[in-house]
Specification:
This protein has about 270 residues and is mostly helical. The protein has helices at about 5-20, 25-55, 55-60, 65-70, 80-90, 100-125, 135-150, 150-155, 160-185, 190-205, 210-220, 230-260. It is a multi-pass membrane protein.
Length: about 270
């Protein structure tokens, strides 16, 4: 069948988490680099569409194309491994330990950052004709996002930090549902449909994605955005990463593992 039952696809997710722990360092970094680059290019694509059409909804509807491409290629995002690898740890898979899980997260995060920065450099050169012209309209929009999502949160103080954390948490709730979607069907069309839906929600609602932000804020700084590296790290990336971790782990990974792998005994009414 093209659709797998929850107990079937959740087992596949645990298998995937185990496989990521045993993957070599080179392969982990390369796949993570390509994931970060692909997602960043999709952000440029979506923002360009939004600017040209005047509709952020249209840009959001088309943004998931990048997410679908990177997961069909087997690339890894930090948000995804926040969900998958702990499931393998909970299942006590051979060789899956807490230190190895942390190492995997670190390598994937490093690779994602490298890919995102690669596209950030390209984007800056593209939006400014190699630095010889003023930043174009798409670049100006991306720069404005960087300013609003650092200075804006900082001005709200601790409330801004809390909102950031929650937006990061809800982001990875949706993004990890997209990761799950890739395992729901055995057909490419089914995988794409299942991945597409939750990604639209995260992007349109403006939730905070740690890897997307690894692109948005560095390119904003390159183009002269009115915020600092410190503001980006303290008033966006750190709370976003923590929120992504909690959201993917609790709202997706633990829920699916608990209810479809470690299920309670069925009640008997006889």
């Amino acid at each position: 069948m093209s659709y797998l039952q929850p107990n079937e696809f959740v087992t596949k997710l645990v298998d995937a988490g185990e496989a990521k722990i045993h993957m070599g360092t080179r392969d982990t970094l390369i796949r993570a680099f390509m994931a970060g680059a692909t997602l960043a290019l999709a952000v440029i694509f979506a923002v360009t569409i939004a600017v040209q059409t005047g509709s952020f909804l249209i840009g959001s509807l088309l943004f998931p194309v990048g997410f679908c491409m990177l997961y069909l290629m087997g690339y890894d995002l930090l948000t995804g491994v926040f969900t998958l690898v702990p499931m393998a740890l909970l299942d006590k898979r051979p060789g899956v330990t807490f230190p190895r899980m942390l190492k995997n997260w670190g390598l994937v995060g490093l690779g994602n950052l490298g890919g995102a920065l690669f596209i950030a450099v390209f984007g800056y050169l593209n939006f400014s004709m190699g630095g010889s012209e003023a930043i174009n309209e798409v670049g100006q929009k991306i720069m404005a996002v960087g300013e609003s999502r650092t200075v804006g949160y900082q001005e709200a103080g601790i409330a801004g930090w809390i909102v950031l954390f929650m937006r990061g948490m809800f982001c990875n709730w949706m993004v990890s549902m997209g990761v799950v979607g890739a395992s729901i069907s055995t057909h490419v069309s089914g995988k794409i449909m299942a991945m597409w839906m939750p990604i639209i929600i995260f992007f349109y609602l403006g939730f905070e994605h740690s890897v997307v932000n690894m692109f948005l804020f560095p390119i904003g700084l390159m183009m002269g955005g009115e915020f600092t590296l410190y503001q980006y790290i303290m008033w966006n990336e750190i709370p976003t990463v923590l929120g992504n971790l909690v959201g993917g782990l609790t709202l997706v990974g633990l829920v699916l593992y608990t209810t479809h792998v470690r299920t309670q005994p069925k009640k008997s009414f006889s």
